[in-house]
Amino acid sequence: MTKTLDIEEISIQTVIRSAKNGDEIVLEENGKPIAKITPIIEIAEEKPKQRIAGLGKGTMWMSEDFDEELPDEFWGFDKDL
To answer: CB-based burial of residue 25 (10 Å sphere; 0-12 exposed, 13-18 middle, 19+ buried)?
Structure first.
């Protein structure tokens, strides 16, 4: 619910109490809105989903020569220089 309050007629405690109750407060001076105060809504922290081992089994492979030295042609120059 939105409440409109004149800054000459309220205290900060009134504004804080209204915000704690979930109200949106519009502060006015001489009938013109000058500020809007909205309550902070806490978002519940989600726990990370548990990872399950083995779901990707059989979808990846690695060649037998994965960790062997790359051929000179790959680097584009002769190593014996």
So the answer is: buried
Q: Taking a C-beta distance cutoff of 8 angstroms, is the pair 16, 5 a contact?
A: no
From CA 22, how far away is CA 44, in angstroms rounded? 17
* CA 14 vs CA 9, 11, 58: distances in Å: 10, 5, 64
At 81, the pLDDT band (50, 70, 90 cuts) reads low
Task: Read off the pTM.
Answer: 0.48
3-state secondary structure of 6: strand
Average the pLDDT over 60-72 and give the result. Answer: 87
Q: Which two tokens stand for residue 36?
A: 């809007």
